[in-house]
Amino acid sequence: MPQQGEPDVCDERALIDGAAAGSSEALARLFDLYSAQVHLVAYRLTMSADDAEDLVQDVFIGLPEALAAYSRQGAFAGWLRAVTVRATLMRMRAGRRRAATALRAGAVGRTTPADGAIDRLALEGALSALPSDLRVVFMLADVEGYRHAEIGKLLGIRTGTSEVRLHRARRKLRALLGER
Amino acid sequence: MTNEPDDSTRSLRDNAAKLEPPPLAHGALARIAERRARGERVELPIAEIAIPFAERPSSRYAAAICIAAALLIAISHRGEREPGAAIDAMAFSAVDNACASFPETQDSSTLRHLMVSTFGVAAACGAEPTRSMPITVDPSRILPGKYSYGGRSITDGVHTSVFKSKKTMSISRTMWHGAPALLAVRDGPLITRVSFDSLVVSARDLTPLRATITYNTQKPVGVIHADFDSANIHVVLTGRFDTAASFPYPIVPGQLPFEWTGALVIPALPLAPGWSGTLRITPPIHPRAYKFVDRPWETMALRVIGRERITVAAGTFDCWKVQVGTTLDQSFMWVSVDKHFVVRSQTDHRFGDTEFEDQVDLESFSSAPQ
Predict the structure, then answer these.
(1) Whose CB among B37, B75, B293, B334 lies 3.0–4.6 Å from B319's, allowing a Cys bridge?
(2) Integer distance in angstroms from the first to the last C-alpha of chain A?
(3) Domain identity same for A131 and A176
(4) d(CA A31, CA A23)
C-alpha cells in the first residue's frame, strides 16, 4: 500500500498518461505530488530560491511533452528527479541565473553551535559561496545519493574528476564553516 | 584509503540534506497553467547532456595552460637561480614530446602529469647545493636484465589513476670500439611512450658513448643519433628535420641525463647507512634543449635515511630508503640493498591547489644470462 502522500501506482500511471495527453487536471495533480521534490532538488543545486522557483515553472511547463519520452518502466519520482537535475545543470551552464541569490558569501561565518550541529544559516552561506561545480557534485553525491559514475555522465566529466571535486567541496565547506 | 565518510563528512551531508528552500510562491501552479495556455513550452533535457570533447574547458585549455606554465616557470627560474636552466630545458623538451602525442591521445591528463612530474623534478633539483664534488660510481654493481616499471598517481589524496603504459628498461653488457660497455634500452617515458631510447655507456665509469632516440609518434618517425667525445655531442636528426650539429656537452663519469639516472647511476652508487652525495645530471639528449642551456649540468642531492623492507609486484626487497632533493618536494627512492636497482620511487607534487602523489614501482625483473 502506498504511504500517505504517495500516489497509488495505478493512479500515478493514469496521471502521467493524462498529463502527457494534455490534461491540465492531471498536470495539476502531478504538481501537487512532486513540485516539492523538484523545488528541493533545484534549490540544493543552485542554492537560490529564485532560480529554484524558475526551475519548478520550467519543469512543469515542459513536463507534458517530456512525458512522451518516459518509458513508464522505472519509478516516476526518480525519472523526474533526473530530469530536474539535468534541467538545472543546463540552466546553470547557460548562465541563466537570477541576479539575487538567496545567500551570499557574507553569510558565511565561523559557527559554534552548542550541540555540535552545523548552523543552518552558516551552512547555506557556505554552500552558496562554494563554486557551483563543486557544490553540484557535493549535492549530487552526498545529498542526492548519485554515484560518481552517474555524476560523471550528467556533468560530462570523468568519474575521477567527480571524486576529486567532492573531496574539494567537502574540504572547502569545512574551511568555510571554520572547522579544523 | 577508505571512502567511508568520517564524522565531519556525515555531519555536512546530514545537515545539507535538511536544508529546504523557502515555500513556493503562491499561485505557482496557476502561472504554469497560464503560460501553457499561452502556448509556451519548455524543452526538458530528457537525454543525458553530452558535452562534446572540444567544448570541455579542461580539454580545450589543457595544452595552452601547460605550455604557458612551462614558459613562466622557465623564465622565472632563469632569472632567480642559477641551476634552473638545464631543468627548464627538460621541461621544454617534455612539453614538446607531450604535445607531439596530444593529437593522437587527446588525453589532457597525460600533459598534466608530464608537466607536474617535470616541474617536480625541477623544484627538487633547483634547491640543491651546486658546488659539490661529483660522486664516484661503480658500474659493476649494475645488474643486467630486463626491468618493467608501472606507476600510479593520486590526486588530492582521493583519486588514483594508474598509468596505462609500463616503462621497460633492458640493460646488457656489450663492447663498444673494443671497450666494455653497457647498453641500456628504454621503452618510454612511462606516461607518453613517445620515444624509444638507447644509450651506450662505458662499463668502466658510465661516461656516455652513443645515444639513439626514436620518436615513434612523429610522422615521419624522428630519429636522433648522438655520439659523444671528450667534450662535445654530435647530433644527427632525421625525420621531420634532417640536420646535424655539434654542441659542447659535459662528459663526466657518472653524469647522465636525468632519464637514465635511475637505471644506470643509482645502482652504481655505494649506498650505505648515512651515505649522502650529489649527482650531476646533464641536459637531456634533445636538440631543442640546447637553446635554453646556459649551464652544463644540474645537481640532485641524495641521502640514505633508512632501511626498509618493501613489497612490490616484482617481489619483496630489502631496500635503502633514499631522500631525493630537499624539502621543496617530498621525493624518495627505495633501492635494493643487494641487487642495487630502484624498487620504488615516490614524489609528492603540488601544482596550484592540487596535490599529486606519484609512485612508480618495479613490476618485474629478469636477469640477463651471464
Answers:
(1) B334
(2) 47
(3) yes
(4) 12
Are both A96 and A120 inside the same structural domain? no
Element (H, E) at B116: helix B108-126
User: B217 phi and psi, to 5 degrees?
Assistant: -85, -10
Distance CA B17, CA A124 (A): 11
Say if residue B168 is exposed, middle or buried (CB neighbours under 10 Å; 0-12, 13-18, 19+): middle
Confidence of residue B285 (pLDDT cuts 50, 70, 90): low
Average pLDDT over residues B56-82: 46
Q: What is the ipTM of this complex?
A: 0.81
Is the domain of A2 the same as that of A81?
yes
Q: pTM of the prediction?
A: 0.51
Assigned domain for A22 exists: yes
d(CA B362, CA A76): 52
| pLDDT (mean) for B312-332 | 82
Per-residue cell: B10: 556525515
- Closest partner residue to B159 among A65, A153, A163, by Cβ? A163
Provide the number of structural domains found in chain A: 2
The answer to whether the beta carbons of residues B16 and A138 sit under 8 Å apart is yes
Q: Could you tell me which residue, B177 or B111, shows the higher pLDDT?
A: B177
Residues A1 and A80 in one domain: yes
DSSP string, B281-341: EEPPS-GGGGGT--SS-EEEEEEEEEEEEEEETTEEEEEEEEEES-SSSEEEEEEETTT-S
Per-residue pLDDT tens for B137-148? 899 999 999 999
Q: Is residue A109 part of a domain?
A: no
Residues of B (6-65) whose Cβ lies below 8 Å from A: 8-9, 11-13, 15-22, 24-25, 28-29, 31-33, 35-36, 40-51, 56, 58
Closest partner CB to B41 (pick from A65, A83, A86)? A65
Q: Is A107 among the domain residues?
A: no
Same domain, A3 and A89: yes
For residues A53 and A121, membership in a common domain is answered with: no
Backbone phi and psi for residue B23, each to the nearest 5 degrees, phi listed first: -60, 150
What pLDDT is recorded for position B181?
95
Identify the top-confidence range among B177-191, B204-218, B239-253: B204-218
Residue A135 included in any domain: yes
